[in-house]
Design brief:
By secondary structure, the protein is mainly beta. The protein has helices at residues 3-21, 282-290, and strands spanning 34-46, 49-61, 66-71, 74-79, 88-91, 95-102, 108-116, 132-140, 146-155, 168-171, 174-186, 189-200, 204-208, 214-215, 230-235, 242-251, 257-266, 271-280. It has one domain: Porin.
Length: 291
């Protein structure tokens, strides 16, 4: 067992212990029913390039527990000059997501199931060329201003996050886990940190967003598979493995505007990334304007 695995397991154990032992009331959650609409624009920059995404979505909350949403991201990819590749802009895969939420005095639980349709261009890394799914489960509990959380999921692709728009996407089964905590510093401003691990199994295909070259069967040079001479690389599970940590600061005034700045360190790829996200709850703004 590696030192990173031991460290991540220790952090996860501490988080679970905190959740089990705390008996304070969780923070009140913003509740919404009816039609929802959300618009998010974010990006990640690192030594391999820049990946931005504009992600509109519209959905419906049937009650305080169950809801769904549909949307489609538009990507703007700017590879670094060292890759020798050109920029790309295009539609990613449209998605349909459903969620269940069960807030509780002891623990808050939510589960999210998302499926995508293969519409984006796989030769530019905007799609895998196949339908994908992701099932993620989340638990958290607030202890005064501190909210520890744990997430675990199953997927046949490596999901992006608001803190890390990856310079690649993948096709192949994996489990993914994340654990950490956020802390409210002042009113609607919070900071947070988390560790993550992507654990693939079986054959994997990596689709680079920052390399424009031929399709091949294996890495053409040393280094990350998304930076080899092949835009698509197929191989064993280790080519899609990733682990690391993220830190962030977030402002969420009145649940209508969400602004986030973050940093992610990938140990597997020796990669440092900075990110930003601006989210607008269009549905709440519209309802407010009608009052």
């Amino acid at each position: 067992m590696t030192r990173r695995t031991v460290l991540f397991a220790s952090v996860t154990f501490v988080v679970f212990a905190s959740l089990a032992g705390a008996q304070t009331m969780p923070k009140p959650a913003a509740r919404e029913s009816g039609i929802t609409a959300y618009l998010q624009f974010g990006g990640t920059a690192n030594s391999d390039g820049q990946v931005y995404a504009l992600s509109p979505s519209i959905g419906y909350e049937f009650n305080s527990h169950f809801g769904m949403a549909v949307g489609a991201p538009v990507y703007f990819v700017r590879p670094s000059s060292s890759t020798g590749s050109s920029s790309a802009t295009g539609l990613g895969d449209p998605f349909l997501g459903v969620h269940l939420k069960y807030p509780n005095e002891i623990i808050n639980f939510a589960t999210f199931l998302t499926g995508t349709a293969p519409v984006g261009n796989s030769k530019e890394g905007l799609s895998t060329g196949r339908s994908t799914f992701d099932w993620t489960n989340h638990i958290d509990h607030s202890i005064s201003r501190l909210t520890p959380f744990v997430e675990a999921g199953l997927s046949n692709t490596t999901p992006d996050s608001s803190l890390f728009l990856r310079p690649y996407t993948t096709l192949g089964f994996n489990t993914h886990i994340r654990g950490g905590a956020s802390y409210v510093m002042w009113r609607f401003v919070s900071i947070g940190a988390s560790g993550y691990d992507i654990l693939p199994s079986g054959q994997q295909t990596v689709f680079s967003r920052v390399t424009r070259a031929q399709t091949g069967g294996g890495p053409g040079q040393h280094g990350p598979p998304f930076l080899t001479t092949q835009q698509q690389t197929t191989g064993s599970s280790n080519i899609a493995h990733d682990d690391g940590f993220s830190t962030w600061i977030e402002a969420l005034p009145q649940h209508r505007l969400d602004v986030q700045l973050g940093f992610t360190r990938s140990f597997a790829y020796d990669l440092n990334s900075v990110s930003f996200n601006i989210g607008i709850n269009v549905g709440q703004l519209y309802r407010r304007s009608q009052n």
